[in-house]
Every structure is written in structure tokens, then in C-alpha cells.
Amino acid sequence: MSFSRRGGRPPARQPRREPGVPRRGGEKSRPMPLPDGKCNPLCPYFRCLNNSLTVVRKPVHGKMQRVAYCRWIGDECIGGACQYAACALKALLPDGTCLYAKEKQTQETRIEDLEREIRAEEEAMSKIEKLMKRKGYFGDDEFE
């Protein structure tokens, strides 16, 4: 059934989607910063305050890819470096990086530091155990 001019019912308008509401399924959309931590103009939370952002499909090395395009300057969007760039989650920092990328990097470094510290403690304990066994403080069956 299609809508015709002669009568019938017009198609229902879709309500405007709020930030953080999933598009399909039950999964929430997440910020998508670039691998170097810069703001990505293809992120669902990126906003252009000049209303010039469009997403076009462009062939790159024989494959079609989505590219953010600025209608105002007529070229690809420069993302967080633009003066009209904004983030719906207020995660865009003044230098053009994403706050969520920085949080993720610091969280990963915290985990790595913790793992490194645990390994160092285990090595120290194994050295102490060997020394105490050599001195005869522990029996073979007590501490293994």
C-alpha cells in the first residue's frame, strides 16, 4: 500500500530520536572516538551547530565508506577542530579530543599498572618462599 494524492492516509511521522535512545534492538549507542582519541564526526553524539553536516558515501580503495561532509566549506568535516563542533554528551574537550576516549585510556593504564604490580608482588613472594624453604622454615607439604 502506498500513499496516493487522491486520498488515503498519509504515512505516520516518526518521532525525533533523543540522544542515548537506541536506534534498533535494545543496545544503546556509544560514543565512537577515533583511535587517536580525537572526536569523530560520524559519532551519534556529534553535532554541528552550523547545521552543515551531512554523511555521504564515498569510494575509498574500492569500498564504499561513510564520510562526514561539511556543506558550508564544501569538503570533508574536520570534526572536533571546527568551531561549530559540539557533543550532545558534553564530552568534546577544547583540544578536539573525546573525554570518553581519555577515560578509556586511563582505565586501561590503571588495569595494566595493577596487573604489573600484582606480578611484581607474586615474584617477590616466590623468592621469599624459596629462601624460607632453603632455611628449613617450611615443610614440603605445608606450603605448596
Core attributes:
alpha+beta; 1 helix; 3-stranded antiparallel β-sheet; 144 residues; two-stranded antiparallel ribbon
Short note summarizing the structure:
Residues 15-30 have a biased composition (Basic and acidic residues). Keywords: Coiled coil. The mean pLDDT is 79.
Low-confidence stretches: none
Estimate nothing, just give the exact number of structural domains: 2
Order of helices and strands: EEEEEH
Instruction: Label the structural class.
Output: alpha+beta
* Overall geometry: elongated
Oligomer: single chain
Mean pLDDT: 79
Termini gap:
76 Å
Radius of gyration, Cα only, in angstroms? 28 Å
Largest sheet: 3 strands, antiparallel
Percentage of residues in strands? 15-25%
Describe the strand arrangement of the main beta sheet, using strand numbers: 2-3-4
Number of strands: 5
Number of distinct helices:
1
Helix content: 25-40%
Question: What does this protein structure show overall?
Answer:
It is elongated and about 100 Å long. The N and C termini lie far apart (76 Å). The chain has 2 domains: 38-96, no CATH class; 98-144. The strands form 2 sheets. It has a 3-stranded antiparallel β-sheet, with no helix packed on it. Strands 1-5 form a two-stranded antiparallel sheet. It has 1 helix and 5 strands, in the order E-E-E-E-E-H. The mean pLDDT is 79. The longest helix is centred in the C-terminal third of the chain and has 37 residues, at 99-135. It has 144 residues and is α+β, with helices and mostly antiparallel strands. Strand 2 and strand 3 (63-70) form a beta hairpin.
